[in-house]
Amino acid sequence: MSAVLDSLVETPVTALKNVGPAMAEKLAKLGIHNVQDLAFHLPLRYQDRTRITPIGGLRANLDVVVEGDIKAADVVFGKRRSLVVRIQDGTGTLTLRFFHFSAAQKNKLKKGERIRCFGEARPGKSGLELYHPEYQFMDELNDTPTEQTLTPIYPSTEGLAQIRWRQLMSQVVALIKQGVGVEDLLPAELLTSKNMPSLAQALLYLHQPPVGSDLDQMELYAHPAQHRLIIEELLAHNLSMQKMREEMQRHAAPAIPASQDYLAKLLKQLPFTPTNAQQRVNQEIVADFAKGFPMLRLVQGDVGSGKTLVAAMAALHVLEQGYQVAIMAPTEILAEQHLKNFQGWMEPLGISMAWLAGKVKGKAREATLNAIKQGDAQLIVGTHALFQNDVEFKNLCLAIIDEQHRFGVHQRLALREKGKSINPHQLIMTATPIPRTLAMSAYADLDTSIIDELPPGRSPVNTVVIDQDRRDQIVERIRAACIEGRQAYWVCTLIEESEEMEAQAAEVTAQSLQDALPELKIGMVHGRLKAQEKADIMAAFKAGDLHLLVATTVIEVGVDVPNASLMVIENPERLGLAQLHQLRGRVGRGTAQSHCVLLYQTPLSQQGKQRLHAMRDTSDGFKIAEIDLQIRGPGEVLGTRQTGLMQMRIADLQRDGYLLDDIQQLSQQLMQQHPHWVDALIQRWLGENVRYGQV
Ligand code: ADP
Ligand code: MG
Q: Where on the tree of life does the source sit, at the highest rank (predicted)?
């Protein structure tokens, strides 16, 4: 080794033995540049190769090391040609089976040789067998003892074998043992009070757990060394969010007083009064506006809780001061629906509006862009087309983002840039209730409001779980409901992410339903239709001109047709619970009792059944989100890529979520008492992935 400096972070990986430019490049692709990065590349799991298990004492499905004498080695021609080697150690006989083997390999594995093998014992033809074990010949081992530590298995990439990782890590371990610095960035009081190991101790332990380590405890991530690093990682993530928030709020934003005029006028024309929850959230927003720095607020409200009105109220405060407001929705259908709602509410107040989506092109687009730039358009509704470079606002002061989980953090930030000299306030609305643990980590940079009350007069949707075999009955039910003047949705789901296949499935379904129900007017929407076609069909359905709407999951978000009171979801087992909850939220918006039929395909797994029953048994979006989180994990629930919620190295939000309250406090403490540690911690754990870093 050369050029080892006195800290790991200052030592480049090329200072290690056997790390040339090619290897350094491979590591760099994994974000590993210096030896500290390497030290924080933590094992995924461990194997116990420290003990030799007697063949007579093997148990199924465990990784084991065995030693024995080869008694026979034969090529067997069964269904597949295989090399079968029998070994004995005095306590029993064991079969090793190789489906791929070379002639040289076969010749070497001959009777009389003694070998040490490592593999997983699995039930096979002749009792327990090892398939493709790793093996070494005893005479080549020269009495090398078994491993002295548990064997770590590292997350890797193509062309980087585990053995290479182990070689690298043994050098890292040696450096740490020599005392090359790896700075402890947790307060000493905390380490003592919680009896946590130092960082160096924890890293040494995790890279080379000594013989006798409790593998079960390690698998539960309950070892103090793991605990210490979990805390550090959660802390680093939290700090990066807090920094982002500080960054945003360091800039001034116009203080906006509460509306004196517009709001009263809007409320007067509404056929209903805002719920207490809507009023409370409005007050929270008003309080933010008064502060003089950018609001960053996430409003969570279950489907149908009336988030649109809350958004409108927020917009009015800002519009009244002469600033522009932008509202973005993730789909065109939803954006158009907002446009209609807002037109109904805002135009009577004399507020001028504009509409911008990808489909707006040519002259129309130019005119719209000009209106936005000149300030002739005060309230702008659209899709992510609003993010595009050529969209210039005159004085954007509030950005409202509906259904946040579909937008990336980066898009949200791009919008901020649109404010140019002004830092716009941001209001983010999500109908997918976010389990608290997730909200605390993925949205730690946002203040949260919850609309925890539905408008009066709603009765929960009655949900039933029914087997596809009874499809005909369901079709009859639709006929009966539609003849009575109600409307229904039929939702097709597909596993493939292809819009085209989804569209085809919807077409086939629509046709077969039309054949079965000739007296009904049936419409269809899917992602492949032109925006105008979609809008026309939605409008026809809303106007009651269609009885039944066959749709793909494009109708998931926000579509509001109160007269629709029956929904059939085909193959609901393919969707996440949160998505099902969203879909189901399309019914139950009017006064009639609504029904949702989950028409599943048999056979359904036990877990699948559990999930659908959970849907049947609760209509509380937060509960559903918790269940979804337990079953599918945070990445799936939030959409990892979209939210910027990163894969963590050792922490797991589900398992470790209970720590987040403490982490929040620790994070505050650190920023006050050890501000110089903050960047180092973030760098250490998030590295070049520092969230928001590249925006
Ligand atoms: P979501 O929170 O799912 O976006 P919406 O804003 O679309 O919900 O509102 C759902 C329906 O409830 C709409 O038809 C809306 O007009 C209506 N609504 C909203 N607030 C109230 C209220 N306070 N009282 C009665 N109806 C309301
Ligand atoms: Mg909505």
A: Bacteria
